[in-house]
From TrEMBL:
Organism the protein comes from: Bimuria novae-zelandiae CBS 107.79
The name this protein goes by in its record: Caffeine-induced death protein-like protein Cid2
Matches recorded under Pfam families: MIX23 (PF09774)
GO cellular component, one term: mitochondrial intermembrane space
Transmembrane segments: none
């Protein structure tokens, strides 16, 4: 059985290092969600009934049952799937908080202030050059992180929905959405 994703050390530096942040999310999603079919296949015990020699005397048109017994499914969800989702949710929540907080250590802050003051002092005659009034300030790293968090939350929602539909096919259809099941699991852990 797979193991849940390891929780990285949550620091603002981790969040601002977008390569490390994306790598963590990519690896976590790859080991659990992207390979959900393989992870669920490991829960099946091959040849539970043993080999039946009479099975070769006739051709079977129907596919063998791919449903997984409920205890194995529940164990997988409780021990692997939901904990991995929880780690990713914690990382996304933490980094979203970092993105909305003031950033006194932003190395580009001084440079942006200088560019802004130069842009304000510039004399613009748009009759001579209609493009001279254009000024595109560089975005702060918190703005960049905020945009990344919005994108990653959207990706996470899609991935969870897809994973949950595969789990539903193999473990039995659930009336809950992925978010409802995850929220219920999380609430049960905190009690």
């Amino acid at each position: 059985m797979s193991h849940p994703s390891e929780r990285p050390q949550l620091t603002p530096q981790f969040c601002f290092n977008q390569t490390a942040l994306r790598d963590f999310l990519r690896i976590s999603r790859g080991t659990i969600d992207d390979s959900i079919t393989q992870n669920l296949n490991t829960l099946l015990t091959p040849a539970q009934r043993g080999f039946d020699p009479s099975s070769t005397s006739s051709r079977s048109v129907s596919a063998p049952s791919r449903s997984i017994p409920a205890p194995q499914c529940d164990s997988f969800k409780q021990r692997v799937l939901f904990p991995s989702w929880a780690v990713r949710s914690d990382v996304l929540d933490y980094c979203a908080g970092v993105a909305t907080s003031p950033d006194p250590d932003d190395p580009g802050s001084v440079l942006r202030q200088i560019e802004d003051s130069k842009a304000r002092e510039r004399v613009v005659d748009e009759r001579l050059d209609p493009y001279s009034g254009r000024y595109f300030p560089k975005e702060a790293r918190t703005e960049s992180l905020s945009m990344l968090m919005r994108n990653e939350r959207a990706v996470e929602k899609i991935i969870r929905s897809r994973t949950w539909s595969v789990v539903g096919e193999r473990c039995g259809i659930s009336t809950e959405t992925a978010e409802e099941a995850f929220d219920k699991w999380r609430a049960g852990r905190q009690e």
